[in-house]
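Try it yourself: sequence plus zinc ion, in.
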Amino acid sequence: MSKKIKKRILFDIYSNNLSDFKTNLKPNKIIPTEIGLYCPLCTQYYGEDKYEQLTLEHNPPNSLGGKDNILTCKQCNNSSGSKIDSEILLALNELDLMGFKPNASLKTRLYNQSTGENGVNATVNLDSEGKFIINISPANNPAVKDAFLNSFEYEYNSGLPLISNFESAGLSQKLNFEFKKPNKRNERLASIGLLKIAYLIGFEKLGHAFVVGKHMELIRSQIKYPEKEIISKPFWIHNNYTDDLLGVNIITKPKELKSFLIVFDLQTKSDVYRIGICIPGYDENDINVYNNIETLLCQGEGDLKVETNSYLNTEFDIKGENNSLLPIKFWEEITK
Ligand SMILES: [Zn+2]
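Structure, out:
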């Protein structure tokens, strides 16, 4: 399907969802049924006249195996997005490499005594047979690059007498270096990137009823200002999520963790990472879920069993008529 057609289809689906939502929310009022939708990130309204300002976006990002299945406005698409997305990719690439996974590839800086504080730019690759290949970027300052490449030491490994053939003599060259872990700030950006992916999946699957939730403004500001500590507690739950949980679920037990649980896969060249992110529900106190994750899971015993209901994910159909309020009704039913 062409991008153009896909964009039109999505526009129609979410426009219908919005007009159905408005009608069902205020059944006694006559609501103008203009065609349009809200950008889930900035909540600006985009009608037919502003159709050109909407863009088809990959969520999760294309580089992490996502599909183009959501509409956001150009402004949101161009702003903070690509920066936090690339931090996720970097963080996962590092996990690949640290786990010695085949085809891992990490753009990084290498440091040793020759490089000083700035290091040299390099790509560290692990091939499919587990062999390390390091490419020093040609874009480095030539003097720094040469100093780094010449900073090897000779190492003598065998008892054979020193002859001109290094290999048979057991003489090898050893280049010592290290690469630094990403700093806390970048890890923070990466985690906000995960929150953004989860939030957009919520909109994709549940429509406008999802983004009007009481606490969503908070989530949106955190996504908009990833460097600020708006949500300072952990919002992810590690678990072995099965395939049937991919999408939007509700955590039913323990009650303290009641929230939307959004499960998705991120794909690197080496591996697939399955992520579970909590987004607060519709009730006033639901924002406490983040405090509770910290208390129960991060400081607790760690073997807490989380039970979920995957109805939203398996049965709910945003395209169905009169379905727009269903997420809210279902939330109330399941969490009372
Ligand atoms: Zn927007």
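One thing you can check immediately is this: Residues 39, 41-42, 44, 72-73, 75-76 surround zinc ion (CB under 6 Å).
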